[in-house]
Design brief:
- This protein has 150 residues and is α+β, with helices and mostly antiparallel strands.
- It has one domain: Collagenase (Catalytic Domain) (3-Layer(aba) Sandwich), CATH 3.40.390.
- It has helices at 2-13, 25-40, 47-50, 81-86, 89-103, 139-148; strands at 17-18, 23-24, 51-56, 65-68, 75-80.
- It has a 3-stranded mixed β-sheet with strand order 3-5-4.
- The longest helix is centred in the first third of the chain and has 16 residues, at 25-40.
- The chain is globular, with a radius of gyration of 17 Å.
- The protein starts with a helix and ends with a helix.
- Residues 1-21 have low confidence and may be disordered.
């Protein structure tokens, strides 16, 4: 009987996804950070009720993530597995926040740029000609824009 419980514990511990909120473990830190950043700015979202997450292979050239809207079920965010494997933590966060901007905040793409050609929003599509400048020193400014420009 003891061996059975140990096996069951190991089996449950190895799961790749948190079944209570449909968030793969690799994405959970970014989801938690999104919720924390929203709360800092006075907003609260129940992401686990609004969105399901999964890794997959996106067909669109250069796509790192995708939000799929559904009218009769929760929205779905798919993160490209190949992107995830080679991306920095900072870039991973930006893409997860971008997709949550679509699926949770209802934001569309924003191709605006400053005089030097830097993107003014993480909601840029990637098809425009602005250059990303999302980093530790610009993060707060980008997140203010993400949450307040709804």
């Amino acid at each position: 009987m003891k061996k059975y419980w140990i096996f069951l514990f190991i089996l449950c511990s190895c799961r790749n996804e948190n079944s209570d909120n449909h968030i793969p473990n690799a994405l959970s830190i970014h989801i938690e950070n999104f919720q924390l950043e929203a709360e800092i700015r006075g907003f609260s979202y129940q992401i686990h009720e609004d969105v399901t997450f999964e890794f997959g292979n996106l067909e669109q050239e250069g796509a790192a993530g995708q939000c799929q809207y559904h009218s009769n079920q929760t929205n779905l965010i798919i993160i490209d597995e190949n992107f995830w494997q080679r991306a920095s933590n900072n870039l991973r966060e930006m893409v997860v926040f971008h997709e949550l901007g679509h699926c949770v905040l209802g934001r569309g793409h924003d191709e605006s740029k400053d005089n030097e050609g830097y993107c003014l929003s993480i909601m840029r599509s990637g098809l425009g000609d602005c250059r990303d400048q999302y980093n530790l020193s610009t993060r707060e400014e980008y997140l203010d824009e993400l949450f307040f420009e709804q």
